[in-house]
Amino acid sequence: MTQYILSIDQGTTSSRSIIFDHDARIISNGQLEHEQIFPRAGWVEHDPMEIWNNVRETVGLSLARANLTYQDIAAVGITNQRETTVVWNKLTGKPVTNAIVWQDTRTQHIVNELAGAEGLEKYKAITGLPLAPYFAGPKVTWILRYIDGAQEAADRGELLFGTIDTWLLWNLTGGIDGGIHATDVTNASRTMLMDLDTLQWREDIAADMGIPISMLPEIRSSSEIFGHCRDHGSLPGVPIAGILGDQQAATFGQACFNEGMAKNTYGTGNFLLLNTGSKRVHSNNGLITTVCYKIGDAAPIYALEGSIAVTGSLVQWLRDNLGMFADAPDIERLALEVEDNGGAYFVPAFSGLFAPYWRPDARGALLGLTRYVTKNHIARAALEATAYQTREVMDAMNADAGVDLAELRVDGGMVANELLMQFQADQLGVDVIRPRITETTALGAAFAAGIAIGYWESEHDVIATWNEDKRWTPQMARLERDQLYRNWKKAVTKTMGWVDEDVET
């Protein structure tokens, strides 16, 4: 019987279920968006129950559209928005509050408390991460501190914590009736609670954050059987055999298995990962060290990562908040109607600046305006911002790696934007390559699950399916490229120091 792999891709704005065949071709998919909740400036939340219900529905949609049943699915892989934090009661199965999303900045005061006199790199040698509101640990601290009854319930051992992968795994495998409470090393590495060398939780850091160890999931590899789907769901008995955080999944799906290979995903934010092999590389240039993946009992593979908070979500903001256009792809049409940015630069520091600056006190700014500037120039400036931010991360990566990257593999929704991709190649001065299958995040999770059950033999099967679709080669003169970038760097400095200490972030 022909069997397939089902990948659950739970992202920042939507949940998708995609069914792949053995040749990594998409057979069918289902997708549903969920609400973005903004209770206050700087706060971003999701409803975990809405996400869980949407995932169940998308699984049913993908099966129905392919005319398949659970018997046709060999395994399930999960990939997820990473640092987004859920705390729930294991007795009732209900979250104690909404999920705090990775973009949320409310924990800045907790981060400052934790840093103390030792500074923001207090835990970096252990966890690979600077202290920042981005990561999950301080979000758990906030929930325990400010949600009524949460600390007491946690102390009684009633509360569980998880990133979205853990929340889905627990529910898919039974929830209050024996649900598996586990995560993989890639997601655990985004909590600021895991030792990158031992791949185990650090009880001392958890104690600093006031988090009982009983709340934390078991840490496992990225490719192994975590458990089997519950009897009363759409996939009874099907093994869940792969879990990867979304950016690590995209790296896996892009077949970046050799040391020195890099990919950049253009989604809600941008995330550039460089495979550093079995050695963890400490960054001196504002990047973070993270686990890239771990296959079963094999040694972990590490990566350097440059995380950019706002890229695709800037396009969404221009569409939804300002009404500049009706559909996200329309931004390219607007931008193509002008030859350049008209002197305008858009620094989208809506959640502060992530890599390579790590400045939570920054806020978004539109600079260089004159009466000459039109909405077309602003559209172009928004797209260019994505390319400039990527160049900043690439420069940091080249400095840390000690060798310049020769090419960049790209994926995510924005890679359909030809103007952006050409400008990206121009700014980086290297070829930018889009693969035939751009759903690399879902594909990476599918491959991890398939390898665990022998559906695919190894990473070599991933390499065999990767094919180039389009390549953009730099065309801009170096002088022009550097002038544009110099003005961008100037614009970035104008966004810093916006939030004072006595202003709630």
Could you please describe the fold and organization of this structure?
It is a single chain. By secondary structure, the protein is α/β, with parallel strands linked by helices. It contains 16 helices and 21 strands. The strands form six sheets. A seven-stranded mixed β-sheet has the order 15-16-14-13-19-20-21. A six-stranded mixed β-sheet has the order 3-2-1-5-12-11, sandwiched between helices. Helix 9 (246-253) crosses helix 14 (440-453) and helix 10 (312-320) runs antiparallel to helix 12 (375-401). The radius of gyration is 22 Å and the shape is globular. The model has no long low-confidence stretch (mean pLDDT 93).
The residue-averaged pLDDT reads 93
Helix content: 25-40%
Taking the alpha carbons of the first and last residues, their distance comes to 56 Å
The gross shape turns out to be globular
Strand arrangement in the largest pleated sheet:
15-16-14-13-19-20-21
Structural class: alpha/beta
Q: Percent of residues in beta strands?
A: 15-25%
Largest sheet: 7 strands, mixed
Domain Carbohydrate kinase FGGY C-terminal: 263-452
Enzyme class: transferase
Family: Belongs to the FGGY kinase family.
EC number: 2.7.1.30
